[in-house]
Design brief:
alpha/beta, Rossmann fold, FAD/NAD(P)-binding domain, 2 domains, five-stranded parallel β-sheet, four-stranded parallel β-sheet, elongated
Length: 294
C-alpha cells in the first residue's frame, strides 16, 4: 500500500503548492508598501517584487528578521537565522528597496499613497496581570534570550504555549548554571512543535537537570515563591526558593497600524503574527500569499 505525505518548506512554502503559486509577472506594476520586516513581510516583499511590482518594506528596527533574530540566539538554533539571510538575498535579487528604523502609520501611508499595503507588524510578548508581580521579579522570555535580565540562580519558566521558546530558554539558563523549573500549561513540554525536535530537546533538558512540571497553570508570585495550579485537579503546585519568574505566555498581535487603517480606502493585506500569533512557517506562507495577491 502506498502512503502519501504532505511536504512543505518553511523558507519556500511554494514547495508542495506549485500549482497554486506559479509566479506570473504582472501586466501593470504597482507600488506596494510593506509594513514590517520579519519573515512574513520579507517573503511578501520578495514575491511581489519578483512579479514586477515596485516594493518598499519599512522595518521599525535597525535590522530585518523579527523574531527569527531571537530564535537564532538560543542553543542549537543558530542556523534558524538562515531564513533572514535567504529572504534578504531574495529581496536583493528582486531589487527591493528596504527602509529600516522606519515607523509606519496612517499619515505616512496617506503621504506615500501606495497602491497596496501589506501589514506585517508582528507580535510582542503577552504580559497579563500576574498576582503578586510587584513583590517578585518577573521578566519575559524575550529579555532572557537577549541577555537583558539578571535572573539569579533559581528560575521558574511559566510556559503557556509549549513551543520552542520555553524549551530554548530552559536550556539556555540551565547551561548558564541556573536551577530551572519549566512549568507547562499543558500535557508536556514542547507539545506544539514536531515530536522529533521535541523529544531530543527534552532529553537534553533532562541531562541538564531541568525539572519539568506539566499541567501547571500560573497563579501568582511573591518575593521567593511561584504559585501554580494543576490544570485538572485545581490543586496548588508551589515552587519555593525562586529568584525569578520567566513569563513565556505567548504573544499578542501588534495591531496599531491595522486599526489605524480602518476606513482607509486602499488595498490592505494582513500577514503573519499581526494577523494571529503562530509560527514562522505560517508567517512565510502568508507572505507568499500576499505577495502573489497584490
Amino acid at each position: 500500500m502506498q502512503s502519501f505525505y504532505p511536504i512543505s518548506c518553511i523558507q519556500r512554502p511554494e514547495t508542495g503548492r506549485e500549482l497554486d503559486f506559479v509566479g506570473d509577472k504582472v501586466a501593470t506594476p504597482r507600488r506596494i508598501l510593506v509594513a514590517g520586516g520579519g519573515p512574513a513581510g520579507m517573503k511578501a516583499a520578495a514575491v511581489a517584487a519578483e512579479r514586477g511590482h515596485d516594493v518598499t518594506p519599512h522595518e521599525g528596527a535597525a535590522r530585518l528578521g523579527g523574531q527569527t533574530l531571537l530564535a537564532q540566539l538560543l542553543p542549537g538554533r543558530a542556523e534558524f537565522g538562515g531564513i533572514v539571510t535567504n529572504l534578504a538575498r531574495d529581496m536583493e535579487l528582486a531589487r527591493v528597496k528596504v527602509v529600516t528604523n522606519s515607523h509606519v502609520d496612517r499619515a505616512m501611508i496617506e503621504h506615500e499613497a501606495p497602491d497596496a499595503v501589506i501589514v506585517a507588524t508582528g507580535a510582542l510578548p503577552y504580559r497579563p496581570p500576574i498576582e503578586g508581580q510587584d513583590e517578585g521579579q518577573v521578566v519575559d522570555a524575550w529579555s532572557v534570550i537577549r541577555d537583558e535580565a539578571n535572573v539569579g540562580a533559581s528560575v521558574v519558566i511559566a510556559d503557556w504555549k509549549g513551543d520552542w521558546i520555553g524549551l530554548g530558554v530552559a536550556e539556555k539558563l540551565a547551561r548558564a548554571g541556573c536551577h530551572v523549573r519549566l512549568a507547562i500549561n499543558g500535557t508536556h513540554a514542547g507539545m506544539n512543535i514536531q515530536k522529533y525536535v521535541r523529544d531530543m530537546w527534552i532529553g537534553t533538558l533532562h541531562k541538564l537537570g531541568v525539572e519539568i512540571i506539566p499541567y501547571a497553570r500560573l497563579y501568582g508570585v511573591d518575593a521567593d515563591t511561584v504559585y501554580l495550579q494543576h490544570t485538572t485537579s485545581s490543586e496548588p503546585i508551589i515552587c519555593n526558593d525562586v529568584d525569578t519568574l520567566v513569563a513565556s505566555l505567548g504573544h499578542e498581535a501588534v495591531s496599531e497600524l491595522q486599526f489605524g487603517l480602518e476606513g482607509w480606502e486602499g488595498e490592505t493585506h494582513l500577514v503573519g503574527d499581526c494577523y494571529a500569533p503562530r509560527t514562522c512557517e505560517e508567517a512565510v506562507l502568508e507572505g507568499l500569499r500576499a505577495g502573489s495577491a497584490v
